[in-house]
């Protein structure tokens, strides 16, 4: 198949870009279309491709300020033209990638990480009081109705949707009125599963790891551990770093900044548990933690309900510091029944090979004009 891969932007290398990397591995001749590309920011499998960018690429300083151009992104993706004939367009979308205009007769398969979360159900997490400056909040409120209409209308141009979780499939139905199959994203667990299961948790600390984005709710963990007599180590950085870093924090909370990929497996393994505070669309860090044989204390909503079980973690039902603190106290008792091998077995269900096989099957069916009767993909997950 001659395939065009479409991705929102290639500026950082996180979960969405790891999905794109896995797709590139099984589609060696695919071209990539994206709004903005920062050369050198991606894996060799991505950087080696022909990468076509939108007019946003030519704006000075765009790689640092691309989020500020959200109102222009629909126009930019619609203006991006395919440079040749393709058997299939495959978009990897959490913002506007699914809105690329495809030629008549070319099927479009869209893998959805999330509908445009900052314009739908997580709007207040990004633009609520205290989350952004007043001019930014006013602008977001002004463009929100238009962006939501555009988001819904362009869903009609997609032949078939694949969601990264049942949680996201329900949002695709709710916001766009479309059904979606479910194929969980690939998680590179090999290096995490190589650490020994024996002796885990010896560091005595709890671990929070992720981008400092508003919806990640690191603030909940910071406030909860302000009241707890337990160490919290925080890994990551991002757009909320200055606001969160300005807080006066107790000595039991330690910021580590970014940590190298090589150091992460040991950091997970020595933690008592991963603290997972967001309502995540899927969530890779809980699986990485479980692959090292460590449990998760997770907000019981969204993708965590598909990756963590009652045998591999403890849930809290409200996204508040008090609820998280109560869960940490319950964990002190629950921990005695935890089995590291059960956590690793749970993580191994979400392999890269299973994702690639299921996606190739969906692509081949769509090119042949065969659509499965059920919206559930036979991914084996």
UniProtKB/TrEMBL annotation:
The keyword Transferase applies. Gene3D superfamilies: Glycogen Phosphorylase B. Keywords: Transferase. Pfam families: Glyco_transf_4, Glycos_transf_1. Residues 15-191 form the Glycosyltransferase subfamily 4-like N-terminal domain. Residues 205-331 form the Glycosyl transferase family domain. InterPro entries: Glyco_trans_1, Glyco_trans_4-like_N. One of its GO terms (molecular function) is glycosyltransferase activity. The keyword RNA-binding does not apply. This is Glycosyltransferase.
């Amino acid at each position: 198949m001659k395939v065009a891969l479409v991705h929102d932007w290639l500026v950082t290398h996180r979960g969405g870009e790891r999905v794109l990397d896995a797709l590139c591995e099984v589609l060696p001749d695919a071209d990539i279309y994206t709004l903005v590309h920062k050369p050198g920011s991606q894996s060799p499998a991505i950087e080696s491709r022909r990468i076509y960018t939108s007019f946003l690429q030519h704006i000075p300083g765009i790689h640092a300020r691309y989020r500020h151009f959200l109102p222009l992104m629909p126009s930019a993706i619609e203006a991006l033209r395919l440079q040749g004939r393709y058997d299939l367009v495959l978009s990897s979308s959490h913002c506007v990638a699914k809105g690329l205009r495809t030629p008549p007769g070319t099927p479009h398969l869209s893998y959805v990480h999330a509908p445009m979360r900052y314009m739908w159900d997580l709007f207040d997490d990004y633009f609520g009081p205290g989350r952004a400056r007043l001019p930014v909040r006013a602008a977001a409120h002004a463009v929100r109705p238009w962006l939501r209409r555009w988001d819904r209308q362009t869903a009609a141009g997609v032949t078939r949707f694949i969601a990264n979780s049942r949680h996201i499939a329900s949002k695709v139905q709710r916001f766009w009125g479309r059904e979606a199959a479910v194929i969980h994203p690939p998680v590179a667990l090999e290096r995490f599963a190589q650490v020994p299961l024996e002796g885990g948790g010896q560091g005595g600390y709890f671990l929070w790891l992720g981008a400092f984005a508003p919806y990640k709710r690191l603030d909940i963990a910071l406030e909860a551990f302000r009241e707890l007599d337990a160490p919290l180590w925080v890994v990551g950085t991002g757009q909320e770093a200055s606001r969160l870093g300005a807080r006066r924090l107790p000595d039991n909370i330690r910021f580590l900044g970014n940590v190298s990929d090589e150091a992460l497996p040991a950091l997970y393994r020595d933690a008592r548990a991963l603290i997972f505070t967001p309502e995540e669309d899927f969530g890779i860090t809980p699986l990485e933690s479980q692959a090292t044989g460590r449990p998760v204390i997770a907000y019981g909503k969204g993708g965590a309900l598909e990756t963590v079980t009652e045998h591999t973690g403890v849930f809290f039902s409200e996204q508040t510091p008090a609820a998280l603190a109560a869960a940490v106290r319950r964990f002190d008792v629950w921990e005695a029944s935890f089995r590291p091998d059960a956590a690793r077995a749970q993580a191994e269900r979400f392999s890269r090979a299973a994702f690639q096989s299921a996606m190739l099957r969906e692509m081949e069916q769509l090119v042949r004009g065969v659509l499965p009767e059920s919206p559930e993909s036979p991914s084996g997950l």
